[in-house]
Amino acid sequence: MFVAGSAVGSDAARGKVLYETHCGSCHYERLHKREGSRINSLAALKLEVVRWSRETGRSFAVQELDDIAEHLNRTHYRLDK
Q1: Global pTM value
Q2: How far apart are CA 30 and CA 43, in angstroms?
Q3: For residue range 35-74, what is the model confidence (pLDDT) as tens digits?
Q4: 7 vs 51: CA distance, rounded Å
Q5: Max intra-chain CA distance, the chain
Q6: Using CA atoms, how far apart are residues 26 and 63, in angstroms rounded to an integer?
């Protein structure tokens, strides 16, 4: 799970690298279109990142998952924090 308001903060640039490296082979830009999206809050986005991270076969640190969610929020979802 995520640590709310972690002291380190989220790093969208690191999240982009992680996303492109570990998620990009299955996910692509049109997957994150906003029309009809189930993602309607930052909490929902973070839960989806956690859920789908299990499909990669890689064990992500909590901060890495937070960084991926931050990247996706900045580039696609633009949800209120």
Answers
A1: 0.81
A2: 21
A3: 667 889 999 999 999 999 998 889 999 999 999 999 999 9
A4: 23
A5: 33
A6: 22
